[in-house]
Amino acid sequence: xxxxxxSSLALYFAVFVxxxxxxxxxxxxxASLFSQNPERYPLMFLIILIGLILSDIWKYWIGxxxxxxxxxxxxxxxxxxxxxxEKVQEHTLMTLFLARFLxxxxxxxxxxxxxxxxxxxxxxxxxxxxxxxYSIIVFTLVYFLESFLxxxxxxxxxxxxxxxxxxxxxxxxxKKYLSARS
Length: 182
Hints:
Mean pLDDT: 83
Distance between the termini: 55 Å
Number of strands: 0
Strand content: under 5%
């Protein structure tokens, strides 16, 4: 059976776009789909990985563009921020590694990398490295969880992935709504 049927192309596209909406849930769902049928979805890992990398590297430019604003530029040149900048520049890999695994830190750290002039090539390579490590870990965990749960309960992992995504999206929307009200 070809991995490129019409329905599988739509699924691959959804997996690719998933990280732009909710990264962790998308990786979990892709891993669950892959582990349920590895022969049908041989490209699932590569597609989610490309989606992860592309969904992360554009955030760098938000920080870079923010430097064009005089207020932002003046804040960046304060002592506390300068010390933070030096630490991020000195420990870029560790910073990006921690951002990959600590909830709610990715976007601010990726933007900070642009603000702090981390070389873009270095940033992209480290994003690709951390995304690969993260995906391998999630795919492996899901594989072993599904092996442990057995055939009858594999569908639970898809529901867990969807639930995690909905909770995170709901929380973000609620915070945005409440901050707009005040």
